[in-house]
Amino acid sequence: MQVAQPYTSDDILDFAILWAPIGGPSAEQIRVKFSLAVEEYRRRLCDIAQSHRRTRAERGRRALPDRVYATSVLESLLSENAT
């Protein structure tokens, strides 16, 4: 039986956006918050960010002014993971 995750995709996005200005969270902070290894956290974050990008593109929407920072952080995360 699989145990439900105690966090949502939005929790991972919010955490990444919160830590982005200071270089991202440490492995210990990720482990404590989500019980994930850094590699798994990054994989999930990248998947979530890509899904967010696709959804926004499908709806033909630009980021709202209060979401510009968050959107720019997500784009940065995606470009870092593309290299």
Give the count of helical stretches: 4
**Contiguous uncertain segments of 5+ residues:** none
* Gap between N and C termini: 37 Å
Summed over residues and divided by their number, the pLDDT gives a mean of: 80
What is the approximate shape? Answer: globular
The percent range for helix content is 55-70%
How would you characterize the largest beta sheet?
none
Number of domains in the coordinates? 1
What is the gyration radius calculated from CA atoms? Answer: 13 Å
Task: Tell me the series of helices and strands, N- to C-terminal.
Answer: HHHH
- Beta-strand share of residues: under 5%
Q: Which class best fits the helix and strand makeup?
A: mainly alpha
What is the total tally of β strands?
Answer: 0
Question: What's the structural blueprint in terms of helices and strands?
Answer:
Elements: H1 9-19, H2 27-34, H3 38-58, H4 68-82
Helix pairs in contact: 1-3, 3-4
Task: Explain what the structure shows.
The protein has 83 residues and is mostly helical. It has helices spanning 9-19, 27-34, 38-58, 68-82. Helix 3 packs across helix 4. It has one domain. It is built from four helices and no strands. It is globular.
Produce a short descriptive summary:
With 83 residues, this protein is mostly helical. It has one domain. The protein contains 4 helices and no strands.
Properties at a glance:
0% strand, 83 residues, mainly alpha, 66% helix
